[in-house]
Amino acid sequence: MRYADLEKLYKLPFFELLQQARKVHESHWSDSSVQLCTLLSIKTGGCSEDCSYCAQSARYNSGIEAERLMEKEQVLERARAAKESGSTRFCMGAAWRGVRAGTQRFESVLEIVREVAALDMEVCVTLGELGAAEATALRQAGVTAYNHNIDTSPEHYPNIVTTHSFQDRLNTIRNVQDAGMSVCCGGILGLGEEIEDRLRMLEVISEFNPPPESIPINALMPMPGTPLADNKPVDAFELARLIALTRISVPGARVRLSAGRTRLSDEAQALCFFAGANSIFYGDKLLTATNPAVQSDLALLSKLGLEAKPADRSTPAPCPRPERPLSPSPK
């Protein structure tokens, strides 16, 4: 969706925007299902990147200790528990710049993926940058979706991260799509961005070919020791407004209410579901930040008449590769 169209929608009165988003949601999603995803950090801390919001960066004194890759059986234990509690997608994150084929740590991750896929869950991973060979290997091992957020606009991105470029993110997404995995890609509100940056972020995401299968919308959880530790909390109405815009701009995507839910009341979360959110991260912890407890989530979904989505290991087939790699178009 073009920036001008997003800007026009953004300026609508709040209830009018939500009404439009609700119509789009109901025309594309005939049921009341919510995808329940569990996220596990399988390798925490010690990352060489300098993402300003991330407590796992080795560059900041955040109190997060660097850990080794979890043992396979530890991961499987958590995956089984997630499945038993209702999650249909198991997401595994590792604090690395990226992975390379032929290395021991990549082979270890592939083995973990194979075992988790055997549990008949959707398997999502986020491992940093991927080349074509690594993306293909992950797909063959059983990964159904790869998470790689663009975080913010191309223009604001250098203010948040300097150790890699916005185009590096897009190149990884292209490799993921070419390998046949679906893309999970969203952003973070509260990074010191302007409204224009949020709209540009959505403009870029909505132009993906094919569109992302899921879009996480995160509200910054300021982490002690990071450069953004003192940033102000994101207003719940601004969060709902962006979820509504995301629903309208990418109608067929699962819009995931992600980090920052601990700061939202049940009523604010209900507003976000009405605006078009139909996926949540589910469980007690979201990488290094707390997440609403399982029973609280189930109780809220029950109050709203929402139900858990069954597992679906299918993935949309990517369209033919464009002549040029993905790149952000000028505003």
Explain what this protein looks like in three dimensions.
With 331 residues, this protein is of the alpha/beta class. It has a single domain (3-307), classed as TIM Barrel (Alpha-Beta Barrel), CATH 3.20.20.70. The protein is built from 11 helices and 12 strands. The strands form 2 sheets. Strands 1, 2, 3, 4, 5, 6, 7, 8, 9 and 12 form a 10-stranded parallel sheet that branches. The protein has a two-stranded antiparallel sheet with strand order 10-11. Helix 4 links the parallel strand 2 (89-94) and strand 3. Helix 2 packs across helix 9 (236-249), helix 3 packs parallel to helix 4 and helix 8 (195-206) runs parallel beside helix 9 (236-249). Residues 285-291 and 316-325 have low confidence and may be disordered.
The CATH superfamily name is Aldolase class I
CATH fold name, please? TIM Barrel
Low-confidence stretches: 285-291, 316-325
Helix content bin: 25-40%
Average of per-residue pLDDT values = 88
Count up the helices. Answer: 11
Layout of SSEs?
Layout: H1 3-10, H2 14-28, E1 33-43, H3 72-84, E2 89-94, H4 104-117, E3 122-126, H5 132-141, E4 145-147, H6 157-160, H7 166-178, E5 182-184, E6 187-189, H8 195-206, E7 214-219, H9 236-249, E8 254-257, H10 266-275, E9 279-281, E10 285-286, E11 289-290, H11 294-304, E12 307-308
Parallel strand pairs: 1-2, 1-9, 1-12, 2-3, 3-4, 4-5, 6-7, 7-8, 8-9
Antiparallel strand pairs: 10-11
